[in-house]
TrEMBL record:
It holds the Pfam family Cofac_haem_bdg. It comes from Streptomyces polyasparticus. Coiled coil: none annotated. This is ChaN family lipoprotein. The keyword Signal applies. Residues 51-152 form the Haem-binding uptake Tiki superfamily ChaN domain. Keywords: Lipoprotein, Signal. The keyword Hydrolase does not apply. Residues 1-27 form the signal peptide. InterPro entries: Cofac_haem-bd_dom, TAT_signal.
Amino acid sequence: MKDESSKVRRLSRRAVLAATGAGAAVAAAGVGSAAATEAAERGGRFVEGVLRAFARHRVVAVGEVHGQQEHHDALLMLLADPRFAGVVDDIVVEFGNALYQPVMDRFVQGGAVEDRELRPVWRNTTQSPMATWDAPMYEQFFRTVRAVNWPLPADRRIRVLLGDPPVDWSRVTTRGDVHTAFGDRDGHMASVVLREVLAKRRRVLVCYGSRHVMHALPGEQGGGGIAQIEQRTGERAYVILAGGHERLASLPGRSLLPARGTWLRGADTSEFRYLPGECGVPFGAVADALLYLGHVGAQTQSLPNPAIYLDPAYWAELERRKRIMGTPIDLVKQYRQEQSVVWPTPPAPEC
């Protein structure tokens, strides 16, 4: 655990802004001028933007695009940046079952963890069998945190908190067990952040699907995990959502654009590809910044190796879970057949 009083561990807001060379950009974005809008449309870089956000917020949430390689490439660049471990204490992820938190703690601290112990972290979540998280980028995420921690003193290492409810699939035998065991996924994530992060005055990066990290609309109660945290504490998180828009085609990939002081603030969320937007909802109401990963249609998928599912025990368990859940998923088509890595271009919503 990190020492909260450590001067080495903490960077001040001024120090982070200086380290990222971002002071002038932040000041310009705040006044909402035409020059600031133009600068924002040119785009800052993702890593620098996240570090700036941590100078002002203890919770920074990134809406993860499940299975998208470029999104995780950006996340790995963030994790590997030498400044990151200086401003972040914890990372909360959707793609991990909290039942295995002791396993993950040992693993990211550098302990010897057998693969058969580690794999259940992502294979046994509430999202199985619809999503096994067997795509290599998820395991790579955990292994990158372990590598980042390796040279650091024990009290400065980043902790990975598994945010999915602690379901024990060996005890799930009926559909009724599903509702009992799975519980409130967003509520569980919120409780993890409240208990393990905010109560300890720590700072956290939250990596969850976009709907889980959006701000609640004015007057809305409940909502995703981040919205619940904000409602229960009054503490504002900084929310980054990934999406594409025709106005951004000239920008380089991994550009980060603030909503404040730019056209993004009032743009309808339905105009963005990859973003789970709704007609009539302005982007600035649900997020603070947009992560632009590149031209729509140029994204790729991270796909699991079909050979994984030739393991008879694992395959039988996926089929058992499918029967319990009653899901219409075609396991053979989804997991045992080769698929193109080209990310399917989502259709534009009709408003």
